[in-house]
Design goal:
13 helices, three-stranded antiparallel sheet, 14% strand, binds pyridoxal-5'-phosphate, alpha/beta
């Protein structure tokens, strides 16, 4: 036992995401950016916010970006700007982070679930069957940093005259047929939660759009409904992106493409090493650049695997272990287990391995070796 503990100290724990490594590499430029905001003392709607909004819009090839307080707020304000409210229905995948659904429910609208495909993304073949006269929008979620198959989804939306809001909270810099995600829907939402591919040092988010009117409405909705100080045109929230966070994001945006490239290299290394084992990554369709926010595999006895890897000092995750309809918050809708079989099966088997731009080849090797010891024989963790 003592020997084993010593060995673990020598090789070190492998975190799921290593934000400390990223900070150490870019400390000076980050501190400089934050210090400039502190010295300018313009903490709310300061010049770094407008600059970041312009730079992120340019990065995506879009006209407008409006910084807000979180990814969840970005989804909610984006939906509200599209006119979605009480009694409306919005179609989402059954396997996503809860925020996709909550943003809809917070407006008094109803999230209507659709089962996922083998990539754990909304099954675009099932969307049409979920449409009703109350459907107002479809929300594709680019889960793990991979693109939803947008061609058929956009076609269905156009045929039915409903709006599209992309949940791009895990897909900064990812592409679909060459074009960056976030530029396909009427509006898209990004999260800058610290662990995302582009992360702030606190909460943050952005609504992006090519539509001037939608952008203008989101600007009102995030800032007390005012265009000019003390003239409040609509009842609205206080939901702004802090100047300090915008300054941090401006620095980090310059590294985003390089970081995503490193994530893809790490994913290729995982792919190769895992091919020797009895586990395979969740399949991905090759429609452009996967941003690998998460590297997900499926294993039969997932919770035992998480514990076994943790004993080897390796942090992992499950995205997500409970589908939306089986969450206590939605128990009132009385949707029974079995209704979305693929999402439910995935929820029990998905395992996310350590993934961050600074991950070392030796760390990947250790993760796969540990997996091999515990589940490589196909019988599940012992
Ligand atoms: C992170 C995330 C959100 C919410 O973003 P927050 O900034 O945490 O509010 C929404 N949807 C998905 C898919 C996410 O991963």
């Amino acid at each position: 036992m003592a020997k084993r503990a010593v060995a673990e100290v020598e090789v070190g724990e492998i975190p799921f995401v290593d934000l400390k490594a990223q900070y150490r590499l870019h400390r000076d430029v980050l501190l400089h950016a934050v210090e400039a905001v502190l010295e300018g003392a313009n903490f709310i709607m300061g010049p770094d916010l407008q600059a970041f909004e312009q730079e992120f819009a340019d990065y995506l090839g879009l006209q407008y970006c409006v910084g807000v307080g979180s990814g969840t707020a970005a989804l909610r304000l984006g939906l509200e700007a599209l006119g979605i409210g009480k009694g409306d229905e919005v179609i989402i995948p059954a396997n996503t982070y809860i925020a996709s659904a909550f943003a809809i429910s917070q407006l008094g609208a109803t999230p209507v679930l659709v089962d996922v495909d083998e990539q754990h993304l909304i099954d675009t073949d099932l969307i049409e069957a979920a449409m009703t006269s109350r459907t107002k929008a479809i929300m594709p979620v680019h889960l793990y940093g991979q693109a939803v198959d947008l061609d058929p989804l956009m076609r269905t939306a156009r045929n039915y005259g409903v709006r599209v809001i992309e949940d791009a909270c895990q897909a900064h810099g990812a592409r679909y047929r060459g074009q960056r995600l976030g530029a396909f829907g009427d509006v898209a939402a990004f999260s800058f939660y610290p662990g995302k591919n582009l992360g702030a040092y606190g909460d943050g988010g952005a609504v992006v759009t090519a539509d001037a009117e939608i952008a203008d409405r989101v600007r009102l909705l995030r800032d007390f409904g005012q265009r000019r100080k003390y003239e409040h045109l609509i009842i609205a929230d206080n939901c702004r992106l802090d100047t300090i966070q915008a300054a941090v994001l401006r620095v980090k945006l310059r590294y985003l493409d390089g970081w995503n490239e490193r994530r893809r290299a790490a994913a290729r290394s995982y792919d190769e090493r895992l091919s020797a084992l009895d586990v395979s990554p969740a399949p991905c369709r090759d429609v452009g650049g996967h941003a690998y926010h998460l590297y997900v595999i499926r294993v039969p006895r997932r919770d035992a695997a998480i514990e076994a890897l943790a004993r080897d000092g390796i942090q992992t995750g499950a995205h997500y272990p409970v589908p939306i309809h089986l969450q206590p918050a939605y128990a009132f809708r009385r949707i029974k287990a079995g209704r979305y079989p693929r999402a439910e099966k995935a929820a029990g088997e998905v395992l996310s391995l350590p993934m961050f731009p600074e991950i070392q080849e030796g760390q990947i090797e250790r993760v796969v070796a540990s997996l091999g010891r515990h589940i490589g024989n196909g019988r599940g963790a012992d």
